[in-house]
Model the fold of this input.
Amino acid sequence: MNLFRQRQLSQAASDLLRFDADSIQHLVSARRLASPDIWLADPDAYEKNGRVLRDSDSPRMLAYSTMDRVLYATDGCNACIRQVGPEELKTLAEKNEVRLDLIEKLLSLLGDMGSDPSSPTTGRGV
Done:
């Protein structure tokens, strides 16, 4: 799992992060698609000033499957799926409630993945 900002989370916030990842995995399984190879979460959307946040106003975790060209997003309450190519991700963010800074980080990770798919920083797997 890649984090938008590197920081330690409490056990409770880490459990919520795992719950969100599991929610996305359920969507993947239900549609019988390939597991996402890029995962990105914003730890600030899970915990702020020691307070655990059950959900957020916008997606706090994104996952992307390069095989299926599918973006998954969750805000902690709802999860959604959209088939979209990497070149369309910024447009998607502009037209929806997906944070552009998260999309830009996801695109950066996609670029890193292309340069060295075995690198531990690419976020393969959860």
Summary: Confidence is low (pLDDT under 50) at residues 116-124. The chain has one domain: 2-122. Strands lie at 2-3, 38-41, 47-48, 51-52, 61-65, 70-74, 79-83. The helical segments are 11-31, 89-95, 100-115.
